[in-house]
Amino acid sequence: MNSTPFIAVEGPIGVGKTSLAKAIAEHYEFQLLKEIVEENPFLGKFYDNIDEWSFQTEMFFLCNRYKQLEEIQDQYLSKQVPVVSDYHIFKNRIFAGRTLKDRHHHKYMQCFDILTEDMPVPNMIIYMNASLDTLLKRVKQRGRFIEQNMDPAYLEQLAADYDTFMSAFKKQHPEIPVLTFNGDDIDFVAYETDKEKIFSLIDATLKKGEVAK
Fold first, then answer.
1. What gap in Å lies between CA 51 and CA 69, rounded to an integer?
2. 65 and 48 in contact (C-beta within 8 Å)?
3. Which of 51, 86, 113, 187 is catalytic?
4. Cβ neighbours of 151 (radius 10 Å)
5. pTM for this entry
6. Three-state DSSP class for 209?
7. Where is the Deoxynucleoside kinase domain (predicted)?
8. Which one of 11, 61, 62, 106 counts the least CB within 10 Å of its CB?
């Protein structure tokens, strides 16, 4: 695991990952890593027809996230520059498990395992989830055109998949602290006090020595 702080913010679509990662980057003066989303040429088609376009969509995300993490390792972490990311590459497994057919999923996981074998691993995860109503509200507020045809049932199932995955992740990786927040109860964009609560928990985790400073 990296000795330099590398924080990943995770959660389902619309929960506020990028907004929180930006706030953390500004507050702690960390390098910000943002996932490529709208640049994916298959994503709009994916929301129209998941079965038809899931493999292309997930492979694009995998290759781009691999390249981003490789650059983050070479340009920042290897030089002891702290990083905060608005995703963890493990999210690819969640989405692929939900959308890919068996024959595609097997091929995809072979590629995933090869590409992520020596990728930098975050040493703190901030996990946010929320109810479907909250997620839909925030997706609507940010107004991404490619998300307007998203099936609410897909988003609801995705949120449940995240909870299941994170429960398993915490058992499998007890060495990585996971800070969990409920987006129904906390709004760090609207309320400064909520943002300060998050920073306070990050500070406490850093001070415990669980993540190198």
1. 28
2. no
3. 86
4. 11
5. 0.90
6. coil
7. 7-204
8. 106
Domains and CATH numbers, the chain: 6-202 (3.40.50.300)
> Rounded distance, CA 146 to CA 26, Å?
28
Between CA 142 and CA 131 the distance in angstroms is: 17
Return d(Cα 206, Cα 28) in angstroms, integer: 12
Task: Record the tokens describing residue 200, joined without a space.
Answer: 């306070």
How many helices (H) and strands (E) the chain has is answered by 8, 5
CB 41 within 8 A of CB 60: yes
Cα Rg, the chain, nearest whole Å: 17
Q: In sequence order, what are the residues at sequence separation of 6 or more whose Cβ sits closer than 8 angstroms to the Cβ of residue 107? A: none
Helix (H) or strand (E) holding 85: strand 83-85
**Please, which residues have CB within 8 angstroms of residue 204's CB and are 6 or more apart in sequence?**
none
Predicted confidence (pLDDT) per residue in 131-189, tens digit: 999 999 988 888 777 787 788 999 999 999 999 999 999 999 999 999 999 999 999 98
